[in-house]
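INFO batch 0412 | record 1 of 1 | parsing
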Amino acid sequence: MRLNDSTDIALRIMIFAATCNRLFTIDEIVAVYRLPRSTVMKVVNALTRGQFLTAQRGRSGGLRLAREAGQISVGAVVRHLEGDFGLVECMRTGNQCVITGSCRLIAPLQQALEGFLAALGACTIADIALTPADFPQVAHR
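INFO prediction complete | emitting tokens
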């Protein structure tokens, strides 16, 4: 199982947001994680659309968690960012596998996926928050 790069970045942004517990900027995320600005902007937009972050416009604007970190499930963030949990062809739309009707692999894969999502659902952003000292100096403001 592998999360896509956008989900990985989203989780790192959420960790940063929970850790700094203040308004922060896209430029801070770019500097801390050494990521392309366009990628961070895309992921931040997805997180704001999903109501995990809120954006405050203006000169003294920035981003922050939309609610308390303990109220945001890691699983909810992953479900929002991941477009498809079809681990193999038979679990995807448009399945063309000829053995789907008799395949014995589908049930264990579905069970594994459900366990994976359940474990992430039981974890909150507060559970994975770090301390400001865990981040490079650029993150201290």
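INFO post-check: The chain has a mean pLDDT of 92.
INFO record closed
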